[in-house]
Design goal:
The structure holds 2 protein chains of 2 kinds.
Chain A lengths: L1 H19 L1 H17 L3 H20 L2 H5 L8 H18 L3 H28 L5 H23 L21 E3 L15 E3 H21 L5 H19 L1 H6 L4 E3 H19 L1 H11 L1 H6 L4 H27 L1 E3 L7 H11 L9 H26 L2 H40 L1
Helix pairs in contact in A: 2-16, 3-11, 3-14, 3-15, 3-16, 5-6, 5-7, 5-14, 6-14, 8-9, 11-12, 12-14, 15-16, 15-17, 16-17
Chain B lengths: L1 H34 L1 H41 L4 H23 L8 H34 L1 H17 L1 E2 L2 E2 L3 H10 L10 H24 L5 H15 L6 H9 L9 H31 L1 H8 L1 H19 L4 H20 L1 H7 L8 H16 L4 H28 L5 H22 L18 E3 L7 H4 L3 E3 L2 E3 L1 H19 L1 H11 L1 H6 L4 H27 L1 E3 L7 H11 L9 H25 L5 H20 L7
Antiparallel strand pairs in B: 1-2, 3-6, 4-5
Helix pairs in contact in B: 1-10, 2-3, 2-8, 2-9, 4-7, 5-6, 10-12, 11-12, 12-24, 13-19, 13-22, 13-23, 13-24, 14-20, 14-22, 15-16, 15-22, 16-22, 19-20, 20-22, 23-24, 23-25, 24-25
The chains are: A mainly alpha, B mainly alpha.
């Protein structure tokens, strides 16, 4: 009897899990197939993946707070990216180099992104329930304003150095280089790099010592501590296998960047335990209830978007310093789409998201990104097909997530109505 | 407090109105001067002066050159250093030039009939020649455009254009660029002038020869060689394509011809030249004053963005007037673009009416239209048969797609627009893969190297422009694309009739108030299905009409923006996301495309940099959709 019950419950859980993470599993399978058919050496794939994670993780994590606050996927993070690019342009123009330049750009981003975030939030408050599409179109709109600013205002009304303007014309040049004397390339990543083995052993040591310490202080359960230590050891042991070891050999880990990412994860967790975080959640669950509880719903929503926009701006700075070039008119365009698709791939939905989902999603999404072209040319004989398939997956994942969310919402509504009729 | 506010309004609009009246009066005075004999005579004098001044230029150059030579010789004789020699020579040259200019640019009796008559003859000969040449070249271009070689050149040019304008895998092609490429593709090197044309050209030289004695009368020191060298510059002064008052005036002004008048007469001539500009500005100010006065009620009625777009449209019209852009070409462009995008915008109508709000998934229907056109091109069909085939097959393909799509939307009530946007995007990118893999074999359609269909397909070999040219006529210089407009209005009329029918009424009722409709016994889901399916089918027809008018069919990323363009058009026309009429489609498409068509030309005339029109489209299109979303009222939906 008990056994059967346990079995049934386990089966139920698996089913539930499968329903929730169906997109993640599809992506996992696709990734494996694509990696197998890409014909690229694992060393290369891991190397590419690591640099992509360095670039993109921060921005994806910036999406979490608005999702929790019930505002869907904030595609308007592109506007945060634009704010960051304005900051970077000014820094390049003034010739501030190195980490100082990046910090200055980050500082300029804050007021700009906060102001934009306030405007975005106010506008989205007027279209509750349509935030996903609203923020996307707002991103397009802002792109027009951005082009107007960079083509016709900068250089003409606001004087700029010749090095950053279009040769023989006005407006900002198409590509801004961060390399060489500009000195912003890897200004953050390059501060402290370690090899993969160093990072692995370091983290293992940290996890083991931390667990032991917490165990002695009796802050965590014994099981949890042992699981953490066990997993850390398993990773170390797996790393000793020559194939794995070899594949991960070339990877350098930019410690400071990943510390920042870890800090953001921590921030996302900690803020949910504060009073503001409670408000985010309350508003996200039900605006009506939150309003009745005396929460200023509109204000909370605006704060959520402002935080997200500023974080996205910083994320874009990390992205561009890693890349080394700033495509003035294109670098921000895909930010919202890629980040949104990545977090959904990780199993997040329109109203739920966690750090773990963001990280897993980012890894899977970018794995596919790395290998799509090669797999396309090997499977279909044309690299473009892989490219188009990648774009299709971006939009398709978002469409699927939206359909599933709406479907669930509607069937919940119907069920409630049925309940109501019966009761 | 309120009274004060309205007082300010009165004063502001009054002042602007006063300014407007001053401008218009000034402009009318200028016009009066222009049509009077003073301006005609003045213009003749200016022309005579300009011709003589050009001729005198040759003498002045000669004298200056001689002075320079003498100065150099002097410098050499006195052992000047290299720098000294150059400085001395240029100083002497400038001196001589000034002296010569003072001597040779004072002409008496510029109303000399003999000179006037001769110049007029030269000008006439040039005009006749230019008109004949333009006609022959047009004929030649038409013949060449049909030939295979021109298409090969065009394809090559197109490919470079596409490569140049690719952004993140998406091609955004500016219409102006495309037009330029199409014109460039015609190679005039093989153009052979007819005997008649050659004779006309010879006549110009003859007329110029008879002008020479007149010139010599004024400037006896002109040598034989100088007269010969002067032929080109003088002919450039006497005639240029398009010789209205402004063009002539500006041309003569370049030769300082205004200096022959007294100060007062100069002002009068300038007033005559600027007369129409003053009237344009006056009309603009008049509208502005009305705008200030009726600001509140108008914004309340139209909504802020629509008011802004309307004002922008008026502003662009006025600017087009100021920059002297040819009005007939402009109107022709606006008409063409209205018809071109009209049917696509119409596809939004049944969607909104049946309650699925903006059907961004109409790209699914567009795919149907593209597919059927591809089939027609693959089979080398041409003319009306190809067009009819594409439309019918396109509808047949779009019908089941729309039906299935509506089944999806019926399960997602309240989230249609969000979902349909991304479903639309997904379909476009999925079809991008299909375009690579579908078994089309016609060499005209596929890349010469590599697999898959091309991005741009030239329609001129098939049914390109078939509607545009049907019964097309020119009136007052405006090319009216009769067939295109007729087709658009036919579609609008059919939709209007449908909305009057029993099903149509039920559909609109279901869309505007689903609960009430349900209570009245209307099957809301069925009505939504009908609306979505019709919308999808119209989209298929829309893209075919668009392609034939544009002259090119765009695959891959091309259809992605179409939903947005159509949505913004109908919204600008006064529709909301839950209510729309046929009139919204017509008015909206006209306004939106009008703003874009005028915007491109005004931007090209005003600033050299491109890209402004694209920026404008992005801002207007997304701005109006955002506004509509805010109006749909937060909590009521979703």
């Amino acid at each position: 009897m008990g056994d059967r019950d346990l079995l049934r419950r386990a089966g139920h859980r698996v089913k539930e899990n499968a329903r929730e993470y169906v997109v993640t599993y599809i992506f996992l399978v696709l990734s494996i197939i694509f990696v197998a058919y890409s014909g690229r050496p694992m060393t290369d794939i891991f190397y590419q993946l690591m640099s992509r994670l360095t670039r993109n993780l921060f921005i994806v994590l910036a999406l979490i707070i608005p999702i929790v606050a019930g505002m869907g996927i904030n595609f308007a993070i592109t506007i945060g990216a634009m704010a960051a690019q304005i900051g970077l342009l000014l820094v390049i123009n003034w010739g501030v180099t190195g980490i100082g330049g990046l910090l200055l750009a980050a500082a300029i981003t804050v007021p700009l992104a906060a102001g934009f975030g306030f405007l975005i939030g106010s506008l989205l408050n007027k279209m509750k329930g349509q935030e996903t599409i609203g923020s996307m179109i707002l991103g397009f709109f802002a792109n027009g304003a951005y082009q107007l600013l960079f083509l016709f205002v900068f250089g003409k009304l606001i004087p700029l150095n010749e090095s950053v303007t279009i040769v023989g014309g006005t407006g900002v040049a198409n590509t801004l280089n961060l390399t060489g004397s500009v000195g912003l390339l890897s200004a953050l990543d390059g501060l402290w790099r370690v090899t993969f083995s160093q990072a692995l052993y370091g983290i293992t040591l940290f996890a083991v010592l931390g667990s032991v310490l917490l165990l002695i202080l009796k802050k965590i359960q014994r099981v949890k501590a042992f699981v953490t230590i066990g997993m850390a050891l398993v990773f170390v042991i797996v790393y000793q296998i020559p194939v794995v070891n070899h594949s991960l050999q070339n990877i350098n880990i930019p410690v400071i960047t990943f510390l920042l990412i870890a800090l953001l994860c921590l921030f996302n967790v900690v803020i949910m335990r504060t009073r503001l975080g409670q408000k985010f959640r309350a508003v996200g669950q039900s605006r009506v209830v939150a309003n009745a509880a005396g929460i200023n719903v509109n204000r909370v929503r605006i704060i959520a978007i402002m935080i997200s926009t500023i974080l996205a701006g910083w994320g874009q700075i990390i992205f561009i310093q890693n890349l080394g070039t700033l495509q003035t008119y294109a670098a921000h365009e895909m930010v919202g789409l890629y980040a949104g698709a990545a977090i959904l791939v990780g199993g997040a939905s329109i109203d739920r998201a966690t750090n773990g989902q963001a990280i897993i999603g980012c890894i899977l999404f970018h794995t596919l990104f790395v290998v799509a072209q090669d797999a396309g040319s090997n499977l279909f004989g044309d690299p473009n097909i892989g490219e188009y398939f990648r774009v299709f997956l971006c939009y398709g994942v978002i469409a699927l997530a939206l359909v599933m969310y709406a479907w669930r919402g509607n069937s919940a509504k119907k069920a409630a109505a049925r309940e109501h009729a019966r009761g | 407090m309120k009274a004060k506010h309205s007082k300010g309004k009165w004063i502001a609009s009054g002042v602007v109105m006063l300014l407007a009246i001053v401008m218009v009066v000034g402009g009318i005075t200028g016009y009066a001067i222009r049509t009077g004999s003073f301006a005609t005579d003045g213009l003749h004098k200016m022309r005579n002066y300009a011709v003589l001044r050009t001729a005198a230029g040759a003498i002045i150059d000669d004298i200056a050159l001689e002075a320079k030579r003498v100065a150099r010789e002097y410098a050499d004789a006195n052992n000047y250093s290299r720098n000294q020699r150059a400085a001395y020579a240029s100083e002497k040259e400038a001196e001589a030039r000034q002296a010569a200019a003072a001597e040779f640019t004072q002409f008496n009796g510029l109303d000399d009939d003999g000179l006037d008559a001769r110049i007029l003859q030269v000008e006439n000969a040039q005009r006749v020649y230019a008109e004949q040449e333009a006609a022959e070249k047009e004929l030649y271009a038409m013949q060449v455009a049909q030939s295979a070689e021109a298409n090969v050149v065009l394809d090559e040019e197109l490919e470079t254009l596409i490569e140049g304008s690719e952004v993140e895998g998406e091609t955004v092609i500016d219409e102006a660029d495309l037009q330029e490429v199409t014109e460039q593709a015609i190679d005039y090197s093989a153009f052979v002038p007819s005997e008649f044309l050659k004779a006309l050209q010879a006549d110009i030289s003859v007329q110029y020869a008879s002008l020479q004695p007149e010139l010599l009368r004024y400037l006896p020191t002109l040598t034989e060689k100088m007269l010969k060298d002067l032929e080109k510059p003088i002919l450039a002064v006497t005639y240029e394509y398009g010789s209205d008052f402004e063009k002539q005036y500006d041309r003569y002004l370049e030769m300082d011809a205004l200096t022959i008048f007294s100060k007062a007469d100069q002002n009068r001539m300038q007033l005559a030249r600027r007369g129409d500009d003053l009237i344009t500005i006056g009309v603009g100010l008049f509208i502005l004053s009305l705008g200030i006065f009726f600001f509140k009620p108008m914004t309340a009625k139209l909504g802020m963005p629509r008011f802004v777009i309307l004002s922008f449209f008026v502003l662009l019209c006025l600017m087009a007037g100021l920059y002297g852009i040819s009005v007939p070409t402009m109107i022709g462009n606006v008409l063409k673009r209205t018809g071109m995008f009209g049917v696509l915008a119409l596809a939004m109508l049944p969607g909104i009416q049946s309650g699925i709000s903006l059907n961004m998934g109409m790209t699914a229907g567009i795919i149907g239209g593209l597919l059927s056109t591809l089939i027609a091109l693959e089979a080398n069909m041409t003319g009306w048969g190809a067009f009819a085939f594409s439309v019918v097959v396109g509808c047949l393909i779009a019908f089941p797609i729309g039906w299935l799509y509506s089944k999806l939307l019926n399960r997602l009530k309240g989230n249609e627009m969000t979902v349909s946007t991304y479903v639309g995007f997904s379909i476009v990118s999925l079809m991008s893969i299909a375009w690579m893999l579908l078994p089309f074999r016609n060499a005209k359609l596929t890349w010469a190297l590599g697999t898959g269909l091309r991005v741009m397909h030239n329609m001129s070999g098939s049914f390109g422009g078939i509607l545009n040219n049907f019964l097309s006529f020119k009136v007052l210089g405006v090319t009216v694309p009769t067939g295109l407009l007729l087709f658009f209005f036919l579609c609008c009329g059919l939709m209007w009739l449908f909305s009057r029918s029993k099903t149509g009424t039920a559909m609109i009722a279901a869309g505007s108030n689903p609960r009430f409709a349900e209570a009245a016994g209307i099957n809301v889901d069925r009505m939504r299905t009908i609306g979505t399916t019709i919308s999808t089918v119209i989209a298929a027809v829309g893209i075919i009409v668009y392609s034939q008018s544009f002259g090119f069919m765009q695959l891959y990323g091309g259809p992605r923006q179409m939903g947005f363009i159509a949505a913004s058009a109908i919204l600008i026309g006064g529709a909301s996301v839950s209510r729309a009429k046929v009139s919204n489609v017509i008015l909206g498409t006209f306004l939106f495309q009008g703003v874009l068509a005028l915007g491109i030309q005004v931007a090209n005339a005003a600033i050299a940099e491109g890209g402004l029109s694209e920026v404008m489209r992005i801002l207007i299109s997304n701005g109006i959709i955002l506004y509509a979303l805010t109006q749909s009222g937060g909590d009521s939906r979703g």
